[in-house]
Design goal:
This protein has about 300 residues and is an all-alpha fold. It has 16 helices and two strands. A two-stranded antiparallel sheet has the order 1-2. Helix 11 packs antiparallel against helix 15. The longest helix has 28 residues. The two termini are about 30 Å apart. It binds geranylgeranyl diphosphate. The site of geranylgeranyl diphosphate has 17 residues, from helix 5, helix 9, helix 10 and helix 11.
């Protein structure tokens, strides 16, 4: 059950609290060093502590709370997910991929450092995420740690982020139908969010129905998040997004907006958010209330 303090906090206050806690954990995991290779660690810190909403860590923390998981453990899993997310953004911005000069309102990591350092920083962040999950500090039960590692590997690899990114790059050269766009986005955006919610259930040794409900919630929410991302690319403001807009159109990418139009895309996002919330009805009382609030926030977000 949420504590009385949590119950009186707004979603924004809760998001800020997670943001600060995760930043502290990441800072501790990436201490400054005067080793000759310090530049690599500087780039890793830059690419992770340069802003961001910390939505995926919030999903880990909130799903873990449902099962009364120790918050120190949840913070470690939350940091691991964010490191993988940040690695993907650093690599996505490289000239060979999206070629983006700005990320989170600041020069992207390869612009601040250089391409080779950005590639290494991304690789090292991905490795660090698995190091964190496999450490007994994350959970004393090795089966729990193995499951976290396996599920994150699935989310990050060919069936998840990397596979989705491959489709995304191919989508610059060929027009995709709605089914392929949905699959691409499920892999590129949805899969890591699904892991974020599933991680809380794994840490809490939740039963299969609860775990499945959280996965289904995250899948629909991830889908809605991507639809709103496509809408923001068309009508968002650079000042809020921290990156240029109308990039998808310029790159000739097939998006939900290009495939179905802005109004239908908005209706689809709303439908997906309602569907996501329905999956949480399995949790009694207000146990999943904050996750429901998060789902509504995705519809209203400006960044
Ligand atoms: C390079 C393996 C590899 C994958 C890259 C995540 C990704 C795949 C590319 C990012 C490009 C992009 C705009 C994806 C759409 C949705 C998305 C993941 C947006 C960024 O996530 P936010 O809004 O970012 O949560 P912050 O900065 O708040 O963390």
């Amino acid at each position: 059950m949420p504590s009385p303090r949590e119950a009186s906090q707004s979603l924004q206050e809760k998001l800020n609290e997670t943001l600060e806690a995760v930043n502290k954990t990441i800072t501790r995991l990436l201490p400054e060093t005067d080793l000759p290779e310090a530049r690599l660690f500087d780039a890793m810190r830059y690419g992770t502590l340069n802003g961001g909403k910390r939505m995926r860590p919030f999903m880990v923390m909130q799903s873990a709370k449902i099962f009364n998981v120790d918050m120190k453990r949840a913070r470690r899993a939350a940091a691991a997910v964010e490191l993988v997310h940040c690695y993907s953004l650093i690599h996505d911005d490289l000239p060979a991929m999206d070629n983006a000069d700005m990320r989170r309102g600041k020069p992207s990591t390869h612009k601040k450092f250089d391409d080779a350092t950005a590639i290494l920083a991304g690789d090292a962040l991905l490795a660090l995420a698995f190091e964190i999950l496999s450490d007994p500090e994350t959970h004393e039960d090795p089966r729990v740690r193995c499951e976290l590692v396996k599920e994150l590997a699935l989310a990050a690899g060919g069936q998840g982020l990397c596979g989705g990114q491959m489709l995304d790059l191919l989508g610059e050269k060929e027009e995709f139908d709605l089914g392929t766009i949905s699959r691409l986005q499920r892999m590129k955006t949805g899969r890591l969010m699904t892991f974020a919610c599933e991680a809380g259930a794994i840490l809490g040794k939740a039963g299969e129905p609860q775990r499945k409900a959280l996965c289904n919630f995250a899948q629909d929410l991830g889908h809605a998040f991507q639809v709103t991302d496509d809408i923001l690319d068309v009508e968002g403001e650079v000042i809020h997004l921290g990156k240029p807009t109308k990039k998808d159109d310029k790159a000739g990418k097939s998006t939900f907006v290009s495939a179905m139009g802005k109004e239908q895309a908005k209706a689809r996002a709303e439908m997906l958010v309602q569907q996501a919330i329905r999956h949480l009805h399995i949790f009694q009382g207000d146990r999943a209330e904050t996750l429901k609030e998060l789902a509504m926030y995705v519809l209203k977000r400006r960044a």
